[in-house]
Design brief:
alpha/beta, Aldehyde Dehydrogenase, Chain A, domain 1, Aldehyde Dehydrogenase, Chain A, domain 2, 22 strands, globular
């Protein structure tokens, strides 16, 4: 059913059924706005209600599904995505504007995410706790076990339309929960295509629904008391407002960043340059852990900046479907226009453009700025664009303090061969993850991933997501005395 340009609209997946609606949704192609990538539908209020009621009913089945059935379903989904790798990757490239090489890597990661879900479903272990710590508690032992929390509301973003959605669907299935997923309106076709694979996995009707919907209907989902957990990935301003409206349900927020990287003296400069080029400019910087602020030791500043600028100049900007493309378009004209305004503001405040800095339609070239006041928006807010702002430093502790001078705290990269500096970074950086000798953009899908401060609440990564999607229950066994 996968939709490409010229095909009929892709139906939406409602509790095991494929349906349409009177509210068509056109999906634009960021690289070619005149030719849509396809179309689908927004769910109606009645269809949303049907999906939620089905999720509530299905939970009475999924919460009792044995581990081998949950594991088998997740492996079926993982294998199905692998079999349709090229198709899904091309579709993602068209509707998200993601270079095809990066799109195929995302498909491979989703294959892993669903496989990891199967493995975690089969090792949801508890523990025995000795309770005889005082005479009055003699002859007692505690046993813990995790139980699924209930129906889950998931909202996923445009920049990783497959794998960030997988990080909600896979742990929900693994833990025995049901889920209603709102995919991104900019690129919903990827997950609707994956829904075809989910539909073949033998899950109960209502276990999974994938419904594009308006923001108004999404707001209704956030406040709906029938959901026991809300998991959202997106912008901080939207996420924190959602938390205020979510009521008593548990909330997991994976929000934005303003990721820093520290390049210490004595680092392997070839490796650091190579990785910063990836970390700053992959998917046109539209990654919440994209390198945005860079702190380079003054002793290596000239050499490192020259190498980085030369490497960025050689990156190929072009069509996302071209395998040779390094940097594709931004998601839409508004994103490119905002980036231009922020660069222009930085220059007006005294910043210097070493490379790039001028939009071309939806395309923005790799951009490197220096001498930029920290009050400029490119320093203080999340750029979500292919730009990096560089600062020299003399003392390592000063670089750590500058990284911490941010509303955000998702991940930080630290290139250093000084073990003391690595430990100092780990102890002092106010972030969810410290990545030593790599960029903050690094992530593999079983690791705990999330931020502090305005960057979010809770952690993803299969094991940690399952902890949020389950409740710990204790049974105490007492032997009569």
């Amino acid at each position: 059913m996968a939709t490409l340009t010229g095909a009929k609209p892709h139906p939406i997946y409602l509790a095991g059924r494929w349906v349409d609606s009177p509210d068509p949704l056109t999906v634009h192609n960021p690289a070619d706005p005149e030719n849509p990538a396809g179309s689908t539908y927004n769910a109606t209020a009645e269809q949303y209600e049907e999906a939620v009621q089905a999720a509530v009913r299905a939970f009475e089945i999924t919460r009792k599904l044995p581990a081998y059935e949950r594991g088998a379903a997740l492996r079926t989904i993982s294998n199905g995505i692998r079999e349709r790798r090229e198709e899904i990757g091309r579709l993602m490239s068209l509707e998200a504007g993601k270079p095809i090489r990066d799109a195929l890597v995302e498909v491979d990661r989703a294959v892993l995410t669903f496989r990891l879900g199967a493995e975690e479903a089969e090792r949801m272990v508890g523990e025995a706790i000795p309770l005889d710590l005082m005479p009055a508690s003699k002859g007692r032992v505690g046993i813990t076990r995790r139980f699924p929390i209930g129906p889950v509301a998931g909202i996923s973003p445009f920049n990783f339309p497959l794998n960030l959605a997988a990080h909600k669907v896979s742990p929900a299935i693994a833990s025995g929960c049901t889920i209603v997923l709102k995919p991104p309106s900019k690129d919903p076709l990827t997950m609707l295509t994956v829904a075809e694979i989910i539909d073949s996995a033998g899950l109960p009707e209502g276990a999974v629904s994938i419904l594009p919907m308006t923001r108004e209907l999404g707001d209704r989902m956030v406040a709906d008391e029938r959901f026991k957990l809300l998991t959202f990935t997106g912008s901080p301003s939207v996420g924190w407002r959602m938390k205020e409206r979510a009521g008593k349900k548990k909330v997991v927020l994976e929000l934005g960043g303003n990721a820093g990287v520290i390049v210490d003296r004595g680092s392997d400069l070839d490796w650091a340059v190579k990785r910063v080029l990836v970390g700053a400019f992959t998917y046109a910087g539209q990654v919440c852990i994209s390198v945005q602020r860079m702190y380079v030791h003054e002793e290596i500043w000239d050499e490192f900046m020259a190498r980085l600028t030369d490497g960025a100049r050689k990156l190929r900007v072009g069509s996302p479907t071209d395998p040779e493309t390094d940097v594709g378009p931004m998601v839409d004209a508004a994103a490119a226009s905002r980036t231009q305004r922020w660069v222009d503001e930085a220059v007006a405040l005294g910043g210097k453009v070493l490379l790039g800095g001028k939009a071309n339609g939806n395309f923005f070239p790799p951009t490197i700025l220096t001498d930029t006041p920290v009050t400029a928006q490119v320093c203080s807010n999340e750029a979500f664009a292919p730009l990096v702002v560089a600062f020299p430093f003399r003392e390592f502790g000063d670089a750590v303090r500058q990284v911490n001078d941010s509303f955000f705290g998702l991940q930080t990269g630290v290139f250093t061969n000084d073990l003391g500096h690595a430990w100092q970074a780990f102890n002092e950086l106010e972030v969810g993850g410290v990545i030593v000798n790599d960029v903050p953009t690094y992530r593999i899908d079983h690791m705990p991933y999330g931020g502090v401060k305005d960057s979010g609440l809770g952690r993803e990564g299969l094991r940690w997501a399952i902890e949020d999607m389950t409740e710990l229950r204790l049974m105490v066994l007492a032997w009569p005395q």
